[in-house]
Amino acid sequence: MKIREGDLVVVIAGEDKGPSPRRVVQVLDGGKKIRVEGVHQVKKHVRRGHPKSPQGGQLEIDLPIDSSNVLFYCGHCARGVRLGVKYTDDGGKVRVCKKCETSVGTVGGRKANRPAAVSG
Ligand SMILES: [Zn+2]
Questions:
Q1: How far is the CA of 104 from the centre of ligand 1 (A)?
Q2: Distance from Cα 75 to the centre of ligand 1, integer Å
Q3: How buried is 11 (Cβ within 10 angstroms: 0-12 exposed, 13-18 middle, 19+ buried)?
Q4: What is the pLDDT along the chain (120 residues), one digit of tens a residue?
Q5: 115 alpha carbon to ligand 1 midpoint, in Å?
Q6: What are the chain's domains?
Q7: Cβ count near 63 (within 10 Å)
Q8: What predicted TM-score, i.e. pTM, was given to this entire model?
């Protein structure tokens, strides 16, 4: 999956599905699960002294959802789209919207600093 933290996505399945773009707050499990702002929210009851709620009470948290339940939101198309990968002239990889082919950022980068093979 090519969804990353900070991306805008459209939720296409489940209780919170809808056409409006929402922000991904966390990517978990190697991209299989994601947390999306305001999606799959539950109220957790906490006692006083909790770091996020010093007075205690109810805390609203976003539970992770499966990343297959969302589509990447393309600002250019103004809708949820599927992502593809393209190679650039300098050998890099970029994520592209499959509809309008607009680049939405580079992919990976893990192999960028790999040392060249030693010959001889
Ligand atoms: Zn697009």
A1: 9
A2: 7
A3: buried
A4: 589 999 999 999 999 999 999 999 999 998 899 999 999 999 999 999 999 889 999 999 999 999 999 999 999 999 999 999 998 888 888 999 999 988 887 765 444 444 555 555
A5: 35
A6: 8-81 (2.30.30.30)
A7: 12
A8: 0.78
